[in-house]
Amino acid sequence: MAKPLYFKPRYIMIGGFLGAGKTTAILQFAQELHRQGTRVGLITNDQSFGLVDTALLSSQGLPVEEITGGCFCCRFQSLMDAAGKLTETAAPDIFIAEPVGSCTDLRAAVSYPLRRIYGDDYEIAPLSVLVDPIRAMRILGLDPGKAFSEKVLYVYDKQLEEADIIVINKTDLLDSAKLEQLRSALAAKYPNARIVAVSARTGDRVEAWHRQMLDGEMDVREAPEVDYEVYADGEAMLGWLNASARIDSDAPFDGNALLRRIADRIQAIVRTGGGEIAHLKMTLSPDQGNDLGVVNLVRGDGTAESIHRLQDDMNSGELLVNLRAEADPEMLREAVLGTLAGLGSSIDVKIEHSECFRPAKPAPTYRMATV
Ligand SMILES: Nc1nc2c(ncn2[C@@H]2O[C@H](COP(=O)(O)OP(=O)(O)O)[C@@H](O)[C@H]2O)c(=O)[nH]1
Ligand SMILES: [Mg+2]
Asked: Which domains occur in the chain, in start order?
């Protein structure tokens, strides 16, 4: 991956629905680039602040800017400001941006405006859209299981329709027959996209995909039409909850077990309330040391996973909760705050911040259907 002599930094965007594995894939890719001596700058995005993704990526020592309070499409200038800031502090050769998992129309609202307005400054890589194969098999009707409601699926479908590269992620969870079944169904439904299959977690088969993002050209076909009324309704069916809390205890406790307990309880309450979790992610950072415990859950009937375990017991620290689900945001608030209030007398919890909402109707700064 030698650097060419005359060189514009490359802007890579890795999209995909909530929980598809964007942050994992970006981290894996960024670490690999970093090892090879390439300077990387990361941009995270969310409808609100207090992001687990930012905490996770910056804990790995990578330069990160976060854009909060709205998506890239609707805050295009903030995206350029974030890129400008990273240029000042880290001079990246490669920018990797993670859009909000409930956003679509990135081709028309981000890639094409970037190309038209900032084409002298940045190379724009092909647009990748990740899928969680278990979620995708259900949505495409290949497996039974709860899917989202129709308007949420409209957003999901539009994300795939605009992809240059559809990335079937988490292949470590699939046998080869299922993978081929999913690959053919996606190829039939989204003929404009190239399809690759990887495991971002293990790094298995990522090379060909990475090569396309580093060397490939974005396809300049016309962006798919998007009905913003349906898109807005679909996005607004998803409840968003972010909370942060101080956790204190007189006696040392197992932070990994605590995170799992919180996740399992929230999951049970949301399920009982008829909601479908798209992504629950939490971090617990002890006051002492630099360790970070991370737990994730990506389906209502899934199992919460500790993706980063704390090495030692802890006495106090900071908890971040990001929950996105098809459910009433108030129900999510009750599920999270009720769970945190009921952890028992040995654990003292002080909520520092909590907010819940439905994303507002997207209003892109630019919309350019063609380059
Ligand atoms: N088994 C498996 N899990 C993965 C893989 N990539 C991501 N995950 C898990 O999927 C969950 C959501 O990942 P994350 O990167 O936060 O998704 P995002 O919402 O798209 O950014 C986490 O628990 C990840 O560890 C993979 O390749 N295999
Ligand atoms: Mg993420």
From this structure: 10-233 (3.40.50.300), 238-357 (3.30.70)
Q: Which of 18, 167, 199, 201 to mutate to test the pocket of ligand 1 (most atoms within 8 A of CB)?
A: 201
Predicted local confidence at residue 213, as pLDDT: 98
For residue 6, the model assigns a pLDDT of 53
- Rounded (10°) angle between helices 228-236 and 150-161: 120
Q: 10-residue block means of pLDDT along the chain (371 residues)?
A: 67 98 96 95 85 84 90 93 95 96 97 94 97 97 93 98 98 97 98 98 97 95 97 97 96 97 98 96 94 96 96 97 97 98 94 96 96 88
Residue of minimum CA distance from atom 8 in ligand 1: 21
Distances (CA, A) of 301 to 111, 134, 146, 156: 35, 11, 9, 19
> Which residues have a Cβ under 8 Å from the Cβ of 138 and sit 6 or more positions away?
144, 145, 146, 147
Side chain identity at residue 258, one-letter code:
L
* Secondary structure of residue 88 in the 3-state scheme: helix
- Residue 19 has a CB neighbour count (10 Å cut-off) of 22
What residues does 357 pair with on adjacent strands? Answer: 240
Q: What pLDDT, on a 0 to 100 scale, did the predictor assign at position 335?
A: 98
Cα(75)–Cα(67) distance, integer angstroms: 8
DSSP 300: T
Residue found under tokens 């919890």? 349
Specify the ligand 1 atom closest to the Cα of 169. 27
